[in-house]
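Title: Prediction job returns without error message
Component: structure pipeline
Severity: low
Priority: P3
Assignee: unassigned

Description:
Job completed but the reporter wants confirmation the result is attached to the right record. Sequence as submitted:
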Amino acid sequence: MLSAEKFPQKAAVICNGQTCTYHQLNQKSSLLAEQLRKMGIQPGDRVAVFADNSIESVISIYGILKAAGVFIILNSTLKAPKLAFILNNSGAKILISRSAKNCIPAQATHQFKHPVKIICLQQDRCQNQPIKESCIPWQSIYENPQSPEIPCSHDADRHDLAALIYTSGSTGSPKGVMCSHANMIAAAASIIQYLENTPDDIILNVLPLSFDYGLYQVLMSVFFGGTVVLENSFIYLHRALQQIARRRVTGLPIVPTMAAMLLKMQNLKNYDFSSLRYLTNTGAAFPVNHIKRIRELFPNIRIYSMFGLTECKRVCYLPPDQIDIRPKSVGKAMPNCTTAILDLDGRPVAPGQVGELVIEGPNVMQGYWDDPELTAKTFRTDPETGSRRLYSGDYFKQDAEGFLYFLGRKDDMIKTRGERVSPREVENTLLEIEGIVETAVIAVPDDLLGQVIKAFVAIQEESGLTQQKIAAHCTKMMENFMVPKYIEIVSDLPRNHHGKIDKKELAKREKVTS
């Protein structure tokens, strides 16, 4: 780990009042790598991390890489069905875990299709586990601190997989984006270049590490030798904002929801933001009114409005000197990345015309895990250059100067709270409720979140279902950002001429009534 050689005593990660130096990160990740190998991990094997933002999560990432494994970061709020699906789909052999009640939900273990060994971050959590004989306490890994350091797997091919990042899919099941070492290094290097990061930068990250936007804050910081301050949520605004002054934070990545929360605060000017050098936004379009108000409040902070996809990490950014001139734009392609906007026949469209955004560069990932059909559809080889192109599924246009403007998804994916949600996945969960006959999920506008989820459900009259009962099931079975904000019980759902539920008609009705 190069940063450990340059800055051994420097803080690499700060979380919950604890500090992990680069020397400690290097040493502890080496010990974890040794443990993973003892547990049978071979190059290319998948290891999942089911935990909140923590020093242990960061150690796990680098320990897995040092063992030549492939890491999977899972949101700590993940419910049992999706946890089991991802572990089964990825074939993960080891789970490094800490959750609210137990090391791993018992419901998930019953659905495992292959043996999964557990490294439990909290020893007392292992006691009630149905597979506790397969649990290894995290602290036991560090009982021999004299173990030799293990470098990251430099002998591995640069095109070998480093990570699987699971994101919602249009089929209703999560899909694992395959990220090679070369992909992730290229993406991180390009972002670092345009953000002009240096070892003096201190980044406050409140985004989950399971979200690639949050994950790359750690990867990039370690790459350039900075410090990342981890928080688990932006809900506790006061605590997060205090960290900016206390830690002299220079970089703050946000999503529009966070911007809206900030702007609703009456006493925002009472906080010390003097150390803050830049602010970045991605995950959803940055509302123009938010940009204007943030510019008024923080005229000296550089604002980067960006656009990206998990399938290539980042596509483009708007230089800060353009934020007042063209606030609706997401800029131009980042360094080492090229973009094109193509029509249905694959031809470039003229400025101002709408087409699909296509991305090319070393940051374009390898495809989708165990899904060659979707990979072939989304990642295509350019017949002239032989390079791999990513067909984003996003509608874009560009102006005469080449600045890009995001218009919307080709499919009906919903972006809410900085997350991408598959309506079908929500519908599948709703249909698990006895008494629900049909359901349709759409996005509706929201002043704070940009978009929120609304579910229309047709039920059996004798079911006794209410909005409250349906919402309770959703809260139990889905992550918070996927739970519908609105649930409307209807007698039937509109259909198109193919006999399918007509979501466009539902959206029209929603506009009329709103």
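Comment from assignee: result matches the submitted record. The CA atoms of residues 494 and 502 lie 5 Å apart.
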